[in-house]
């Protein structure tokens, strides 16, 4: 296979900036494919000692195939930088969309919940835990569909680690004991309450999130077409 280099891409506008580098809109010159090119500086990663995280991110994300997970296509590097070739999500971060809108209505929220639950269920079936789900790491595709991104903190799931009490249970309790805003519907309150149970064993499983009455009634998720192989 021909080795890729930065000369194979036309670099466009910046899409985002991170601690270790930047993300740019780019086009692969030969195939004319639009991608997001994540440029990471080796010196910065070595300084913070996170090279292993990058290797793990590449290894994990390159094997994931789901409509609600950002695709990882390939990577290459030069003397000073590492380049990750990623799927381009034209509608950007959910965080910025939420800031722009102020709040999401039930239809949009339920759609995102179904997409997120399905993608996380797929990850768990592949023995992968993301560990950093937040609006900044959820991107929006061409049709507004949710895409989980940034697998830098992800790990392969170890069954022996599943018996703990879960992460940040104190923060979950703080959230749970706060009053819900009046704008939150009864169905959404019910789902949130079941997700924020103190005991992990009592929390609603991901598959049940997708089957929750509020999600079923409000979600407008549209799955991408499936192309069958010709006989």
From TrEMBL:
Gene Ontology MF terms: ATP binding; protein serine/threonine kinase activity
Ranges where the Protein kinase domain occurs: 9-231
Annotated catalysed reactions: L-threonyl-[protein] + ATP = O-phospho-L-threonyl-[protein] + ADP + H(+); L-seryl-[protein] + ATP = O-phospho-L-seryl-[protein] + ADP + H(+)
Kinase recorded as keyword: yes
Record: active site: 132 (proton acceptor)
Residues of the signal peptide: none
Pfam families membership: Pkinase (PF00069)
Protein name: non-specific serine/threonine protein kinase
Organism expressing this protein natively: Cyprinus carpio
């Amino acid at each position: 296979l021909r080795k890729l280099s930065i000369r194979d891409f036309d670099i466009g506008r910046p899409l985002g900036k991170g601690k270790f580098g930047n993300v740019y809109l780019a086009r692969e010159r030969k195939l004319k494919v639009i991608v997001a090119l994540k440029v990471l500086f080796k010196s910065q990663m070595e300084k913070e000692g996170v090279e292993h995280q990058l290797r793990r991110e590449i290894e994990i994300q390159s094997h994931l195939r789901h409509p609600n997970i950002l695709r990882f296509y390939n990577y290459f590097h030069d003397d000073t930088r590492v380049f990750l070739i990623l799927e381009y999500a034209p509608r950007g971060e959910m965080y910025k969309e939420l800031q722009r809108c102020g709040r999401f209505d039930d239809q949009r929220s339920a759609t995102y919940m179904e997409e997120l639950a399905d993608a996380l269920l797929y990850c768990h079936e592949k023995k992968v835990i993301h560990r950093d789900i937040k609006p900044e790491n959820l991107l929006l595709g061409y049709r507004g569909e949710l895409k989980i991104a940034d697998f830098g903190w992800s790990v392969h799931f170890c069954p022996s680690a599943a018996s703990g009490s879960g992460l940040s249970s104190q923060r979950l309790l703080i959230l749970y004991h706060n009053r819900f805003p009046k704008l939150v519907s009864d169905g959404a309150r019910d789902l949130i309450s079941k997700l924020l149970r103190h005991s992990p064993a009592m929390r609603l499983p991901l598959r049940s999130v997708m089957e929750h009455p509020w999600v079923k009634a409000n979600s407008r998720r549209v799955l991408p077409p499936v192309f069958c192989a010709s006989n």
